[in-house]
Automatic annotation (TrEMBL):
Methyltransferase domain mapped to chain residues: 44-130
Keyword Methyltransferase in annotation: yes
One BP term from GO: methylation
Keywords assigned: Methyltransferase, Plasmid, Transferase
Keyword set includes Endoplasmic reticulum: no
Pfam families: Methyltransf_25 (PF13649)
Protein name: Class I SAM-dependent methyltransferase
Source species taxonomy: Bacteria, Pseudomonadati, Pseudomonadota, Alphaproteobacteria, Rhodospirillales
InterPro entries: Methyltransf_25, SAM-dependent_MTases_sf
Superkingdom of this protein's organism: Bacteria
MF GO annotations: methyltransferase activity
């Protein structure tokens, strides 16, 4: 699989508010609330950790949300470019370097010392992404393999927290371009997000993300690919992969809607 983020590095900070960059909260509102019920010290894996913002939040106990954590936080991601940034950021907060590893979702099943280790696995804003070589016809097989990998690292009674984009809401809004701008360490980071939607909701969709740091002059462009599936279709895929849907609810903002699921492996 191709690493769509290979040239992004720290420019990904454009997508993070200062609060999220500090690790004050997770990026998904439902996950923030649901984590309040997880005992401090539990082993938690962010299986798409990116630059490490949610790993930091787990390590710190999501302090902006309420009395929770801190947890025994780990992270994995397919992008080595983003992991390099994550390792630097999390090490500065005292997280051991070996807590972060490069892995696809499916390849988690092959990490021996992580097998059945985690009380909770997070996979936020990622499972609807289609890596290079995956399209609308092969996405379901890719998702099955991904879910198998995440199930393999969950312990008895563990939970998988994941989300999908609300594709009908995105279509209803006409997939408008989005500009996100955030300031970190005195520098201004900016990202413009432009869609190229597929012919139907279930088609392959693409989005071009143009990143820049206004102060340093750094720039990078990444094209991400997605496959649309309804909440009911995804719930069926979860059950087929051996999960029970415990909870689901809409999350996000009015202009950027998601649906978040809490899943439990079925013995």
């Amino acid at each position: 699989m191709d690493d769509a983020y290979r040239d992004i590095g720290r420019l990904y900070l454009a997508l993070l508010s200062p609060e999220r960059e500090r690790g004050d909260r997770l990026g998904d509102g439902a996950m923030n609330r649901w984590m309040l019920d997880v005992p401090p010290g539990a082993a938690i894996l962010d299986a798409c950790c990116g630059v490490g913002n949610d790993v930091l939040a787990l390590h710190r106990g999501i302090p902006a949300v309420g009395k929770a954590g801190p947890w025994n936080a780990f992270g994995s991601d397919f992008s080595e470019s983003l992991l390099r940034v994550a390792r630097t950021r999390t090490a500065a907060r005292g997280l051991p370097a070996d807590r972060l590893r490069r892995s696809s979702f499916a390849d988690l099943a092959g990490i021996g010392d992580w097998r059945h280790r985690f009380d909770v696995v997070l996979a936020a804003h990622a499972i609807y992404t289609a890596p290079d070589g995956i399209d609308e016809g092969t996405y379901d097989d890719y998702l099955r393999a991904s879910l198998h990998g995440m199930k393999a690292v969950l312990g008895t009674g563990g939970r998988l927290l994941t989300n999908i984009r609300d594709w009908p809401a995105a279509e209803a809004r006409g997939y408008p371009p989005t500009v996100v701008e955030n300031r970190h360490g005195g520098e201004v980071f900016r990202c413009r997000y432009e869609w190229r939607p597929g012919k139907t909701l279930r088609s392959l969709h693409a989005a071009t993300l143009a990143f820049e740091c206004r102060d340093s002059g750094e720039r990078a462009v990444s094209t991400l690919r997605f496959v649309g599936r309804s909440a009911d279709e995804m719930a069926g895929m979860f059950r087929e992969a051996g999960f029970r849907v415990i909870r689901s609810e809409p999350t996000g903002t009015e202009g950027d809607r998601f649906i978040t699921f809490m899943l439990q492996p079925v013995s």
